[in-house]
Amino acid sequence: MTLADDPAPLRVDVLRGNPGDDELAALVAVVTAAYAEEAGDALADDEPTRSVWSLSQRGLRRPLARDRGWSNFPG
Fold first, then answer.
1. b/e code 13-51 from CB counts within 10 Å (16+ = b)
2. Pick the residue with more confidence: 29 or 12?
3. How many Cβ atoms sit within 10 Å of the Cβ of residue 73?
4. Pairwise CA distance, residues 54 & 59, whole Å
5. Which residues contact 12 (CB under 8 A, 6 or more apart)?
6. Is the pLDDT reported for residue 23 higher than 80?
7. What is the pLDDT averaged over residues 7-25?
């Protein structure tokens, strides 16, 4: 994605001082580069990988049937 693809135009308001055209151009260049770098790093992986911990986990056991009481005790 580039800034040209962004539907909302960028607006810069100067609240103090009187920057020249060169200073504003430098500001826009730095902010654009920082935005492009952050947007490139923010992409998620296509396929999530399973960790070694999750691969070694056993499945959860079934919940206890508490309604049966001691009647099915094998001992």
1. eeeeeeeeeeeeeeeeeeeeeeeeeeeeeeeeeeeeeee
2. 29
3. 7
4. 10
5. 24, 27, 28
6. yes
7. 84
24: Cα separation from own chain's centroid? 31
10-34: average pLDDT:
88
Domain that holds residue 37: 1-44
Residue 66, domain member (yes or no): no
40 is a domain residue: yes
Number of domains in the chain: 1
**CA separation, residue 12 to residues 35, 36, 70 (Å):** 15, 17, 75
The sign of the CA dihedral 22, 27, 28, 29 is: positive
pTM: 0.43
d(CA 50, CA 48) in angstroms, rounded, equals 7
